Amino acid sequence: MREKGTGKSLLYKDIGQEQSFELGRYNRQLAGAETARELDLESSTLWQALFGTVGAAAGFALGGPAGGAAGAMKGWTVGREAGKWGQRAFSDYDPADYAISTDPGKFDVSQRYDFEDINRQFEAAERSRLYKDITGTGTAIAAMFASGKGGLWDNWSNESRNLLPLGEELTTYVDPLDQLIKNPDVRLTVTE
Questions:
Q1: Predicted confidence (pLDDT) per residue in 153-176, tens digit
Q2: Minimal CA–CA distance to 33: which of 88, 97, 112?
């Protein structure tokens, strides 16, 4: 015959053991997911630095005596972008591979929603990183396209001038603010 209250004690013991097991498993899985993400980010940084350095060296060497520094900057930009997307191509990181188990056990069933939210946060962080990489590449392309004399913009605009019918000139708008920045001695008058 059981003593009074032993069933409740056994229930509390089971709850305590399960909570301890679940907490240990959660901590291990979360640490594994965080470590995998950090390693992937470090790998991306390493690839970008390595490819950027190689690109800068090649750009400096191929930039000639007058454009060595400009060539190095373009090489650095192209190299970093190649490193970023190369690392993404060879990386096997996927947040789903490191998802935290959503099985909360018998007693704390409501924790399932917390675990699912953590998994969604890891997936959202990876999507955010992808979009950041895409916009970063777009920014780098735009910067190289518009970079100073001899940039891609000059090459493109010179080519487009060659497409005009003979005898016609390409007219450009001259912004007074640009003129003021380039030549601060010029006085602008404001008319109402």
A1: 555 455 444 544 555 554 554 555
A2: 97
Residue 177 and residue 184 in contact, taking contact as beta carbons nearer than 8 Å: no
Give the closest residue to 118 by CA, choosing from 31, 42, 16.
31
C-beta separation of 55 from 79 below 8 A? yes
Q: Are 50 and 76 in contact (CB under 8 A)?
A: no
Helices (H), 63-110: 68-90
Provide the whole-model pTM.
0.63
C-alpha to C-alpha distances, 185 to 3, 173, 177, 182, nearest whole angstrom = 100, 21, 12, 9
The per-residue pLDDT for 164 is 46
